[in-house]
Write a structure and sequence with these properties.
By secondary structure, the chain is mainly alpha-helical. It has helices at residues 57-71, 75-88, 93-105, 109-122, 127-139, 143-156, 161-173, 177-190, 195-208, 211-224, 229-242, 245-258, 263-275, 279-292, 297-309, 313-326, 331-344, 347-360, 364-376; strands spanning 2-7, 10-11, 14-15, 19-26, 29-36, 40-45.
């Protein structure tokens, strides 16, 4: 039995999504519309073998109940079942393993790691436990530990495709595309039907700017698993970056249909609607995303841009102000508010915000946009 855990390093269903800027033209000035980054899927191992038996019939029966609850998404109830199984048989490695998987589904990675530790202590060659612990470490940004766990999983089970794909995802996040491609290609040699690996490889190609190969991989992932949300989401991001807004909206629609609480999909569909000048639809999507994560700074900025683009300046200013309150170090809140001030003819406020961006942003691209804005305002 194989279930997929989306390795998105996000809070709730979409853990800390990294923010990138998409350069748009609006109001005759530079406008940064924040876009939530593409996500990849990691294969979380929940395979069951005859060796998972504890030797205690009562503990095995309770554990089997937990597996059924897990499959239904009733993770708290599953955890309670695994607790009872461990009370009956404290050396039940599979109960630790599955309880760790349930904690991971809930986003409680520390408890998940502790349970995978317990499973590995009882069964040192437990390749699936190393794989899953690697995912939990990666979700916390602990890439060194994640890589060590994937290496151990491969050491104990060399024909195990999932840790190769998951390790490729870590290499991708580190910008090591050559190693990432080597690993994901090896995963697909071992299992040509591993849909999550196609999403990982598509993301690698996307990061490299090879959109044709990225689309091919996302398409194949969807063919293999039409329920794979991240494949639609990532393909939507690719279309969005290419300016194919209608296709992007279609893919985000599908991602949201499959996962109605997918905040990043609402956010990026809002970006697509804004690019299509459908500002009311954009505002509705940003608002929905904010109900899912009220502290999403980039979403406040995106909604502020949509309000500004429809010339509704008071709520735009309120959204920029809220973004700044939540994270005063996020430069694009000030940069986009400067666009609004410039449009209103408030030169002093625009310059003040642009100076703040100069303090906060250290990349040449953003500094270049600020210089262009200041030059347009007649300021050196």
């Amino acid at each position: 039995m194989l279930l997929l855990l989306f390795d998105t390093t996000r809070r709730s269903s979409w853990r800390v999504a990294l923010i990138v800027g998409v350069l748009l033209l609006c109001l005759n000035a530079c406008d940064i519309n924040p876009l939530s980054q593409s996500h990849t899927t990691s294969a979380i191992a929940t395979a069951t073998t005859t060796s998972d038996s504890s030797g205690n019939a009562q503990a095995d029966a309770v554990w089997a109940d937990g597996r059924q609850l897990y499959a239904k998404g009733a993770y708290d109830a599953a955890i309670n079942a695994y607790n009872r199984a461990l009370q009956l048989q404290p050396s039940f490695a599979a109960a630790y393993f599955w309880r760790g998987a349930a904690y991971a589904k809930k986003g409680d990675y520390n408890k998940a790691i502790a349970d995978y530790d317990g499973a590995i202590q009882l069964k040192p060659d437990y390749a699936h436990a190393y794989n899953n612990r690697g995912i939990a470490h990666a979700d916390q940004g602990a890439y060194t530990q994640a890589l060590a766990d994937y290496a151990a999983a491969i050491q104990y089970q060399s024909d195990f495709s999932w840790p190769y794909s998951n390790r490729a995802n870590v290499y991708r996040k580190q910008g090591d595309f050559a190693r990432a491609l080597d690993d994901v290609n090896h995963a697909l040699q071992l299992d040509a039907n591993l849909a999550s690996a196609y999403v990982v490889r598509g993301s690698i190609y996307d990061d490299k700017g090879d959109h044709d190969h990225a689309k091919s991989d996302y398409d194949e992932a969807i063919r293999l698993n039409p329920q794979l949300v991240e494949a639609y989401y990532n393909r939507g991001n690719m279309y969005l970056a290419q300016g194919n807004y209608d296709q992007a909206v279609t893919d985000f629609n599908q991602a949201i249909a499959l996962n109605p609480v997918y905040g990043d999909a609402y956010h990026n569909r809002g970006v697509a609607y804004d690019d299509k000048h459908d500002y009311d639809a954009a505002i509705a999507d940003y608002t929905k995303a904010l109900t899912l994560d009220p502290r999403a700074v980039a979403t406040y900025v995106g909604r502020g841009n949509a309000y500004r683009d429809k010339r509704d300046f008071d709520p735009a200013l309120a959204d920029y102000a809220q973004a700044i309150t939540i994270d005063p170090s996020y430069p694009f809140s000030y940069l986009n508010r400067a666009v609004l001030y410039r449009y209103k003819g408030d030169k002093d406020s625009a310059v003040a915000d642009l100076r703040k961006v100069q303090e906060l942003a250290h990349d040449d691209h953003t500094q270049g946009m600020v210089d262009a804005q200041l030059k347009a305002l007649g300021v050196k």
